[in-house]
Specification:
- By secondary structure, the protein is mostly helical.
- 66% of the residues lie in helices and 4% in strands.
- Strands 1-2 form a two-stranded antiparallel sheet.
- The radius of gyration is 21 Å and the shape is globular.
- The chain starts with a helix and ends in a 7-residue tail after the last helix.
C-alpha cells in the first residue's frame, strides 16, 4: 500500500524500485505460494506451486515483468532479472519470462493511452540515421561516466551509513513510531518543496514542436 501511494504521489522513489524489487516480486510470491494477506485476512488461491525452485523462478519472472511494465522494455526486463534477481536460470525460463514481459509492456502501454490506441513511440525506437558523433566527444563521455560512477559510490556509502544509523535508532525495544512518522513526513515535504520551487526559481521554457 505504501509503495502504491508513493508512486501515485509522484515522489522520487524511482519506478524501478517499487515495480521491480517489490510489487512485481511480492505479487508473484503470493501467486506462487497460493496465499496472501490483505485487509488483515489470509486469502487462499485454488493453486499452489510445489517446491521452492518453482516458487523462486516465479518470483524472478515477477521481477522481470515489473521492469518491463515500468520501462516498456521486455528484453530489458529479462536481462535485469537474469542479472539481478536470479541465482539460477534454467534455459526454459528465458522464453517464459520474455512472454510475460511482452504482455506486461504491451498492457502498460495500452493502459497509459486509455486503450484508445497503441502507438509505438517510446515502445519501439528506431535510431536516427543522421545521428553521429566526433571522436573528441569520447573524452567528455568518459569523464561523465567516471563522475557518475563516483556519485553512485557516494550514494551507496550514504545509504549504507543511513541504514546503520536507522538500525541503531529504531530497535524492537524502542520502535519510536512518532519519529518514524516524522521522518516520512519530512522526506515527503522536502521532495514536494523541491518539485514546486525548482520551476519557480529557474522558470520554465516552452519545448520546441
Amino acid at each position: 500500500l505504501a509503495l502504491i501511494l508513493v508512486c501515485s504521489a509522484g515522489l522520487f522513489a524511482g519506478s524501478e524500485g517499487p515495480l521491480v524489487a517489490h510489487l512485481g516480486a511480492i505479487v508473484a510470491s503470493g501467486v506462487a505460494r497460493g496465499r496472501f494477506r490483505c485487509c488483515r485476512r489470509r486469502w487462499r488461491l485454488p493453486w499452489k506451486m510445489v517446491g521452492h525452485r518453482e516458487q523462486a523462478e516465479f518470483v524472478t519472472v515477477g521481477a522481470a515483468v515489473g521492469v518491463a511494465g515500468a520501462f516498456g522494455s521486455p528484453v530489458g526486463g529479462v536481462l535485469f532479472s537474469f542479472e539481478e534477481a536470479a541465482s539460477y536460470w534454467p534455459p526454459e525460463l528465458t522464453w517464459r519470462t520474455f512472454f510475460g514481459c511482452a504482455v506486461a509492456a504491451a498492457l502498460a502501454k495500452a493502459t497509459k493511452n486509455g486503450f484508445q490506441g497503441f502507438p509505438v513511440t517510446t515502445f519501439v525506437e528506431f535510431p536516427d540515421a543522421e545521428a553521429d558523433f566526433e571522436p573528441w566527444e569520447l573524452v567528455p563521455f568518459a569523464l561523465l561516466g567516471a563522475a557518475c560512477g563516483l556519485l553512485g559510490t557516494l550514494f551507496c556509502l550514504g545509504t549504507r551509513s543511513l541504514g546503520r544509523l536507522r538500525q541503531r535508532l529504531f530497535t524492537k525495544a524502542k520502535p519510536r513510531v512518532c519519529v518514524r512518522i516524522a521522518e516520512v513526513l519530512a522526506m515527503a515535504a522536502c521532495l514536494l518543496l523541491t518539485c514546486a520551487l525548482t520551476p519557480v526559481l529557474w522558470g520554465c521554457r516552452p519545448l520546441a514542436p
